Amino acid sequence: AIEEGMSIAISGSNAEKLDRAAQALRAKGGDVLHRVADVASEAEMDAFADAIFTAKGQVNLLCCNAGVNTLRPVEAMNMEDWDFVVGTNLGGTFNTIRAFLPRMLAQQGGRHILYTGSMATVSQQAYQGLAPYTASKMGILGLSLGLETENPPEILGQTMAFVGSGESEMSSSALVRRPGRSMPRPSDKAVGVRRIPAEQAARMMLDGVKQGKRYLATHPELAPDVAAAHNPILAAFTDV
User: Fold this and answer.
1) CA distances from residue 34 to 26, 161, 213 in whole angstroms, order as listed
2) How confident is the model at residue 71 (pLDDT cuts 50, 70, 90)?
3) Cα torsion angle, 72, 16, 194, 204, sign
4) Using 50, 70 and 90 to split pLDDT, how confident is the model at 164?
5) Which pTM value belongs to this model?
6) Deepest in the core among 70, 77, 200, 202, taking most CB within 10 A?
7) pLDDT for residue 37
């Protein structure tokens, strides 16, 4: 995004990590605004949106990227665990859109939403403990489809990336924020998934936005997993 000449605004709930990220972006020559904000807080996301629109006047690309999980099996979860995952991933995505979309629709410049989706959105998961995470990621797809009905592509562009496995601090953040209620993520080697660098995933996603793609996949080799999950659903509409 910096190479494209974009001004960048980022938020996060951890001030120390947010400062490091902002400093790294500025070191690359980026024009960066950063502010501590929890995606699940209406007041904090409203304040973040106010700060950006005041400083820049418009937002052309809104990235919904926050994600957490606990990796606990359903029978070992409580409502706080569920709300932590679904409230952050799905609720935080809605809350981000709610805070930004009205002013984006009113502005003269282009407008696009980029969702960091997951293979959890479209296929059976490679390991256990991801039921609320999967529900939240499928919910984001449903949210985007509803939004597309209300605002067709010529008004609001949308891109959802189905990320197979990329570098992130999602699991470690959950362990810190929910001590005793979160479990470490199995290694990608153990579950046979190829991990890609965060920069590579980000470039693929930005290229997808520029090309106007509604959906994109970072791991095309996982297509059989998607077919295995969805072919039985399709069969229900033909096998009558």
Assistant:
1) 11, 24, 28
2) confident
3) positive
4) confident
5) 0.88
6) 70
7) 96
Residue 47: pLDDT band with limits 50, 70, 90: very high
Residue carrying the six token digits 């990621």: 137
SS3 label, residue 92: helix
Give the residue among 165, 168, 163 at the shortest CA–CA distance from 208.
163
Per-residue model confidence (pLDDT) at position 215: 98
Question: Within a 10 A sphere around the Cβ of 163, how many other Cβ atoms?
Answer: 24
Contacts with 197 (C-beta within 8 Å, 6 or more apart), sequence order: 166, 167
Q: Strand pairing of 112-116 and 215-217?
A: unpaired
Annotation says 115 is catalytic: no
- Among candidate residues 115, 127, 133, 215, the one labeled active-site is 133
Two tokens, residue 92: 């935080």
> 175-199 burial, b if ≥16 CB within 10 A, otherwise e?
beebeebbbebeebeeeebeebeee
